[in-house]
């Protein structure tokens, strides 16, 4: 049997031209007398009822609903609506009411509209909400304060705050629920100022008679969200006056408000007042909020002390507590304490909690034990999207990009539907490895999933293409984003900086500012790297002034970049001044100034600074010893070089890398110890690259060792056959030794291979203007004066005994 009908409700008591339900859906009616389910589906605004085949059911149901009033009463209808609403079957709840009306029951008999209105709110559709509002208005049910309050809540739930405000203002009678609904509604919708205005209005109009918990919690939450300490203090005073400041929920909200406003002292005062209260003082939530507040305000030692005290008092922590403490360990980089917390988690049986597992992984990654972190992930049985995203992102950011991509492949096989965080992690890994084909495949997947417009995924894509050297596509992705935040702008500027597109980076920086987006420390570090690349002093000083005006000068990342920029722009004095003014210096800070001193040949200052670094208990790293060994090489201090090279292994347990071996080979080569340098290369535990062989080849040229140079050159050309620079160096060596046949052979090889040496380029800053010179170029407007000066210098060199190699200066071989 099938019955088709349409349901209509009037809108605001006017005409029957608006249907209550306008989309197809399927609902289920519960038979209160039996357990049989009867399905009901709406298609094209008509309801099709399929009745069960049981003859007894057919006698009870004629139109999909109980029609015998003696069998079905209003309370049972309400119970059905309540059950459906609580279970989230909002359409079913509404259908029960419609069937109730169509089966002849008078609307006036139904008195349970608050529950029905809640079902309409669950649809999140303001148009349908207006229909029930109109229906109630037509039948005169809006005199009931409970119905009005339910409608207020429905409008807020549907995102129609304006409708809620209009209705509230027209209400002749308001109770505490009315005010609570409005104050909470503004707060939950993010309009925190209006939430506080409504709270103040409630106090003023009601004389403080409504000091209920809900309104106060919402008001305190609003204060915390906008860091409005003044209003927070007023609400605290209001609570003290009403004698409810010891309520455990309000105490937690007060502490949270003070902590988010940065007023640690008042938060501590609130906490101390309730510590002796048996009920509130041992409430775990209050302790959690206090510990989290300390962590958020970077009072890490106080947070740890409070956690220990909590344990001593016998208050058992929950998952929220240990998650906060694990965050604390991550910020302290204290692996020892983190391991103790891990043991406590196992003892409490919280290791199966996915939030705890994720926080444990984060802690081990941040504290330098990624292997344990990966073991935790692999042992976990409760992988959710957050945990997957966490392990991938941490792998990508902590030097395990291949593992991140393996996890991504595993996730795709197991789950198949990544969220933006998963895609972000995979793109970070591709950026680190410069895996352009794999990253482009992920880009295509992001487009297919509709995540390419996500601002975070978009920023990661810009960064990925920049890391892969494809700035054209990076710009295409960037300008295709509907929203561009600071992260995406930083990715673009960083991409330009990394690809030596200095002018483009500076233009992007200006464009970003014109869009009213303020740079952060990452932006300024990128711009300083551009200054370093250009070696333009005036630009470096301009950036420094900008940093001072915008209070960036206290940031470690910016100051480290500033020290390097000044040094590479030729102003070691400014570099040292920045260094000496810093109250806190990390490893990078010391390495930056050491590199600057070495670059400017101030070897003694460099060695003295290194001793101060050790006195400051800063452990040297590979970068430190690269700077020291490079300086020893340029100053010819062989003994000092060996001392530092051996020290890094013996004193600091640092295994030398290719960079340090290259410095030692250069040091020995410059000093004429060519065979010793060759033996050092051959004894390396790591594979030598073309740079270390190139350093030895240059030394062979300087000392005229043709025999060893040929051996070294063979090693180089095995690694990179197209290396034109080293072939030219070898040809010049043969030319110096007078072996013109070999010179001709090498240069013939260069021509046949189609190799071309890039002409040398230099530039100089004069009166804040940059002058660029390229070998053989006459485009400069004062090229006549320039070459006349060169000729004058050449004559002066001849007078003091220098004899130039005419053949080496000839261009006929490079035609």
Radius of gyration over all CA atoms, rounded: 38 Å
Mean pLDDT: 82
Largest sheet: 4 strands, antiparallel
The residue fraction in helices comes out at 55-70%
Strand percentage lies at under 5%
Number of strand elements: 6
Euclidean distance between termini CA atoms: 96 Å
Tell me the structural class.
mainly alpha
Biggest sheet strand order reads 1-4-3-2
Number of helices: 43
* Subunit organisation of the chains: single chain
Pfam families: E_motif (PF20431), PPR (PF01535), PPR_2 (PF13041)
Family: Belongs to the PPR family. PCMP-E subfamily.
Organism: Populus trichocarpa
GO molecular function: mRNA binding; RNA binding
